[in-house]
Amino acid sequence: MTASAFDQTERLHGLDGLRGAALLLGVVLHASLSFFPAQIWIVADDQKSVWASGLFFVIHLFRMGSFFLIAGLFAHMMLKRRGVMGFIKDRMIRIAGPLAAFWFPVMAGIVAVLVWNASLMGLTAADAPPPPKYNWTNIPLTHLWFLWVLLWFYAALLIGRAVVARLDRAGRLGRGLDRLAGGLIGPWGPLVLGAPLALALWFEPNWIAFFGIPTPDAGLVPETSALVGFGLAFGMGVLLDRRRDLLKRMEIWAPVWLGLALGAGTTALMLSGGPTPVLTPMTDPASKAMTAAAFGVATYASMFAVVGLALRFWSGHSALRRYLADASYWVYILHLPLVMAAQVVVKDWPLVWPLKLAIVVVGVMAVCLASYELTVRHGFMGRWLNGRRVPWRKARVGVPLVAE
């Protein structure tokens, strides 16, 4: 079944699967950090490889952009279905609630692993640097930053929708937005969307090019480039929900976008240091401009490509993909302290780094999925995080789409 066969009420299995994959790839992403050629992570493995940093680069290029595009589509769909108050209630429960509930336990787990790792290295409290001074510009949101940024985008969606409804009673602006969406779904789309992101990256004062869009995980006000980069993806998702017919076109153009992503992504990688990435801010204006342009195009080309491919090959129902998509939220919330702990355990083992990476990823996934099955899926937490609870004895059957 292709994307064009779906109406507004059916579950978009391809996009739901891709959303889950984007979150689960976060486990691989963070697990790869300890194997970077240069130490950038608190846990440094004795095995180093440029292939590990290359793996990180590829995943990081498309992962969160794809997630925010799908989040925008599902958010607009939910807003239409439930209305403003129903939408706000649901997002406060399922997005703001987990951020508030899990931030402290996750942070405590991270700190515990840091203390453990330091003790294994023979360090004491006297060796620790002075604690940072936290304020609204310096709060470690950890990997849960995406929940905070989603709340920004939900607020922008509600405000934008209210403004359009007030000023566009004749519907001309809405029709213009629909035409804009249609114009962006083609080989030129990543070029158009990439331009404002490239400009924002160029103006970013301490931009480390290898990491593309800066991760807004260290303050309550996200960086401008993150708001632009992820905000355009979220907005594109909103427009796609208005124009579901464009999903079929995304399937068709996916190979072209994939080729564009490979070309622009390779260029961005080479300009940011190549096999051994440069992990310091870019200072030369000309080099920074070229690198930012390459990242702008590569980000949206890769995002469009994986969305089109997911619609093409994952449009049918799969019990396994559905299960993993449901579990991915819990896995992502839980995974980071576990990944760090596993990295500490394996860092001195006399094994090649791909095997160590596999051990960390498989081990963490096993723990997270077991805890999901035993403590989340069939109880109140399943309804809280996934919008539904699956009774223990209930057979797995097709269910209506649950947004986000």
UniProtKB/TrEMBL annotation:
Keywords, alphabetical: Acyltransferase, Membrane, Transferase, Transmembrane, Transmembrane helix
Membrane spanning stretches: 21-44, 50-74, 95-119, 139-159, 180-203, 223-240, 252-272, 292-315, 327-346, 352-374
Family matches, as InterPro entries: Acyl_transf_3_dom, Glucan_succinyl_AcylTrfase
Database matches in Pfam families: Acyl_transf_3
GO molecular function: acyltransferase activity
Domain of life: Bacteria
Name of the protein this chain belongs to: Acyltransferase family protein
